[in-house]
Amino acid sequence: MIRVLLVDDQRLLRSGFRALLDMEDDIEVVAEAGDGAEGLALARRHLPDVALVDIRMPVVDGIEVTRRIAKDPALAGVHVVILTNYGFDEYVFDALRAGAAGFLVKDIVPEDFLHAVRVAARGDALLAPSITRKLISRYVAQPLRADAAKGLEELTNRERESVVLVAQGLSNDEIADRMVISPLTAKTHVNRAMTKLNARDRAQLVVLAYESGLVEPPAR
Q1: Is the pTM of this model over 0.85?
Q2: What is the pairing mode between strands 2-7 and 50-54?
Q3: How confident is the model at residue 184 (pLDDT cuts 50, 70, 90)?
């Protein structure tokens, strides 16, 4: 059973999402919160698999909620998915930097919404190749961070290559084709790179790849 926490200050929107989720046999909404502070308290109480968090809320906003969850060892199993009305804005990149597994626009169709919850619960990042490319083109032209390069020297050549391809928006299957390896081996390279770079998920791996200078955005 996938346990979900809803954190959004719009009660009507929470009710709509809950109605969708409650119809699924493999998903359970364990709690709802109307602001970030309440959401953090409920996350610690219920330890959900997925926290759907509005990016702009009173008291504590979604970015800070994400940051606190990512830094709390007791919440290591909680995958934060950011909810936004605004699509690809600077807040989305900040949320990914803070540790979000991905994001959803609130007008997403129900089928895609339910699929996204299941993807997040598996620990996969909600960054389809098309989304990754848009993030790359619009928001990764940030100043390089010296601390982001920590751990790069521990990567094997194949792991480094896989990180570059992830940052270019390729899926594991596409990485496998490019590197002429099996999809399982591609996934292994990516997972080992995440471990060595202390990245929570694929989304964090993309951020680290650019912030470290391992990959440069076209507009840099």
Answers
A1: no
A2: parallel
A3: very high
